[in-house]
Design goal:
The protein has helices spanning about 20-25, 45-50, 85-95, 95-110, 115-125, 130-140, 145-150, 170-180, 200-210, 225-235, 265-270, and strands at about 5, 30-35, 55-65, 70-75, 185, 215-220, 240-245, 280. It is α/β, with parallel strands linked by helices. Strands 1, 2, 3, 4, 5, 6, 7 and 8 form an eight-stranded mixed beta sheet that branches. A hairpin with a 2-residue loop joins β3 and β4.
Length: about 280
């Protein structure tokens, strides 16, 4: 089985619609794909309706969190999407995305970059607006050569010249909320140092003690040494190890299935979840 547990659609900051995402996942040889848009579940219905035979969909989300001043992302899988407390927290985070984006645009204007809200809103479309949309605008304007280049201290990285904070959930609270909604939690790309400061291992140990289920080890932003270190940490803390592409369509260079999750780990995730179940494809639309 080929299992990719981290992918984004146009419901947040990917360039594939949810339907295109699942069709591309199957065409790329995947057996299981997780839809993990940022702080939203709006892509679920379209993805399920288009789900091709032979592909199983894991419903999820990537939650925006912050610990000790460091931003981090928490992948949540197979939770009850209508559970009121978790739904309210996702909406709180999502509602803060627009004023945050406008704040970053104001900072960019102050740096002489003629980006506009109208341009960013066009790029985001119906998705939850985020930094990748602003980064795409910078590429369009010729300010940077790629989306990855925009995520530097010069521009949009944490603490960068145009960075603006947004409401982010305390990760201990995120774990509690996801667990209460029957879901499973995995710390996304914990060693992605090029994105900014990373969470110390001591804090990861505290999250593990609070119920964190796993860490995403095999990821494009982790080099071989980082993957080895994180794999050892996971073993020490009793955490599941996942691998994923963090696919965003044409917005990033990674491809679906670039990194995958061991079937036994996937099986354990599904055993732990009680809020929702993987959806098997029956042909799609």
């Amino acid at each position: 089985m080929r299992i990719d547990l981290h992918a984004h659609s146009t419901a947040s900051d990917g360039t594939d619609t949810p339907g295109e995402l699942v069709r591309n996942a199957r065409a790329g040889g995947l057996d299981v794909v997780a839809l993990t848009d940022h702080d939203t579940t709006r892509g679920y219905a379209e993805a399920i309706a288009a789900l091709p035979e032979g592909l199983t969909l894991v419903t999820g989300a990537e939650l925006s969190c912050r610990i000790d001043g460091v931003s981090m992302h928490m992948l949540a899988y197979l939770f009850d999407a209508e559970e009121p407390a978790l739904l309210a927290e996702r909406e709180l985070v999502r509602d803060d995305r627009v004023p945050r984006a406008k704040g970053m645009i104001t900072r960019l204007n102050g740096l002489g970059v003629p980006v506009t809200w109208e341009q960013v809103a066009r790029i985001a479309g119906d998705g939850s607006v985020g930094r990748p949309h602003i980064a795409t605008a910078l590429v369009e304007l010729g300010v940077v050569g790629s989306v990855d280049e925009a995520f530097s201290e010069n521009w949009l990285a944490d603490g960068g010249r145009a960075y603006v904070e947004k409401h982010e959930t305390d990760p201990f609270e995120a774990i509690r909320l996801v667990k209460a909604a029957g879901g499973v939690t995995v710390f996304a790309h914990p060693g992605a140092s090029k994105r900014g400061r990373t969470v110390p291992e001591a804090s990861i140990a505290e999250l593990a003690a609070a119920g964190l289920d796993g860490i995403e080890v095999d990821h494009m932003d982790h080099d071989a040494d980082t993957r080895a270190r994180l794999r050892g940490l996971a073993k020490e803390l009793g955490l599941l190890v996942t691998g994923s592409s963090d696919y965003h369509g044409s917005r990033k260079t990674c491809v679906l299935g670039e990194f995958t999750t061991d079937p036994e780990v996937y099986g354990e995730i599904t055993r732990r979840a009680t809020g929702a179940f993987p959806v098997p494809g029956t042909g799609g639309a």
